[in-house]
Amino acid sequence: MHLPFFRRSIEFGRHPPPRALLPAGVPTCPRRLQLVSPRPILSAAMRILMVTQSADPFQERGGSVAVVTAMACGLERRGHQVTVLTADLGLGRMSSGTDGFVRGQWGWQSDKDSVETIYLPSWASYRALTLNPGVFSFCRARLRTFDIVHIYGLYDLLGPVVACACRRFEVPYVIEPIGMFRPIVRNIRLKRLYRRLLGASMTRGARRLVATAAQEQQELVEEGVPMHKIVVRRNGIEPPQRMPAGGTFRLRWRIPKDAQLVLFLGRLVSKKSPELLLEAFSRWQTRPEARRPAVLVLAGPDEGDGYREKLEAHAARLGLGSTVLFTGPLYGDTKWSALCDADLFVLPSQNENFGITAAEAVACGTPVLVTDHCGIAPLIQGRAALVVPHDFQSFSLALDRLLRDERLGAELKRGCADVARELGWEEPLEETERLYAGLIKEGSRG
Q1: Is 194 helix (H, G, I), strand (E, B) or coil?
Q2: Helix ranges restricted to H, 103-184
Q3: Are the C-beta atoms of residues 67 and 178 closer than 8 Å to each other?
Q4: What is the CATH architecture assignment of 248-421?
Q5: How confident is the model at residue 185 (pLDDT cuts 50, 70, 90)?
Q6: Is cis: bond before 57, omega within 30 of 0?
Q7: What's the mean per-residue pLDDT of the chain?
Q8: What contacts 196, CB < 8 A, 6 or more positions away?
Q9: 97 Rama sector, left if φ>0, alpha if ψ -120 to 50, beta otherwise
Q10: Helix/strand/coil for 149
Q11: Where are the beta strands (DSSP E) in 354-446?
């Protein structure tokens, strides 16, 4: 990407359109017409823009998609007007096509669950990064009609453009790094370059940064973010009203009823340490205590970089054979069925800002094993989960213990119900409302 061109492009013009006007022809539902009035000093019903590189239906892009969906729908139900601005990552190539979407001024648009979602056309892409020039005209035309902007994630080009426009038009914005702030694992040099060229000004101009756990808060402080700018707000879970029938997932994948089912569910990426899990599971299979058969399921999308093939080859070298299943991504009822049928859920991440899938396992009454590098660990430790350091010896011993000690498993299973009740979305939504309202009021005094 040619950075000088990028910098020139975010100078949004000296004479922007009047803030009370929307461009003619913008496709929107009747409720959206309320957006044309000037921003009030403080209103019970807020007009919120959420900016994210990937949104529903692109669930394979990770937990951030679920978080944005839950927050947007939850705030909409509470009477606020929410717009999600995101990139079109291939709607036309999906099996369902563009059913439920309409063409708008800036690309495909959806009003599912009353949340306006705009998918900007992607002119080019590199891994998860896309080039979406439509963000400039969107910001010129509509940014000043919002009370608050919430930017999710880093290392994309949508966030910096919108943040620059927010600073110019004096619209308050917050950043939720979703665990991306500290460069780790891959493309570290490029991430540091991004931070220097685009991320630094974006972060300085943010009114607040949202951390989903104390662990992420500490990382932000260590990376130079002032403590007073950080707000800690956990994520939540929204299980289905009716759980799938037990045994459905086992039947689909021909897993015996008497086999212990160990489940990993998440993107197949190195930072989640699936290789460590394979080695620990291999060690368990050779132990005399392993009297019952056990099956390890690695469920989740890969990123097309050959990492899944690497894991499959590693499992073959360990001699695991049919005791390891790679199912690919699981969504909807299939995901919940896997979580319900599992005897143990594992998340051996070396860095996880929260860990929604672990919380979802708890909601299904499934005991959990996580590392202390997962943000959710303090919320479930000793009640619904064992929490261990991120090293092979500790993780392997804990896996052995949970697969061997039925009494411990039953104790953690009983604790799941109480923990699950504490992990709903109502509290995070209320905290987010208060944050937004305070920042809007703070801006009006300035």
Answers
A1: helix
A2: 134-142, 158-169
A3: yes
A4: 3-Layer(aba) Sandwich (3.40)
A5: low
A6: yes
A7: 87
A8: none
A9: left
A10: strand
A11: 368-371, 385-388
From residue 195, alpha-carbon distances to 81, 123, 155, 157, 190 in Å are 31, 23, 8, 12, 9
| Structure tokens that stand for 237 in this block | 């879970």
d(CA 141, CA 16): 8
Q: What is the pTM of this model?
A: 0.85
Domain with CATH 3.40.50.2000 in the chain: 3-236+426-445, 248-421
Question: What is the architecture of the domain spanning 3-236+426-445?
Answer: 3-Layer(aba) Sandwich (3.40)
Amino acid in position 421: R
Tokens standing for 387? 């929490």
User: Where do the H-state alpha helices sit in 195-342?
Assistant: 200-205, 214-222, 248-253, 274-285, 307-317, 332-341
In the predicted model, is pLDDT for residue 199 greater than 70? yes
Q: In 3D, which of 39, 227, 57, 239 has the Cα closest to residue 145?
A: 39
pLDDT digits (tens, 9 = 90+) for 400-445: 999 999 999 999 999 999 999 999 999 999 999 999 999 999 875 4
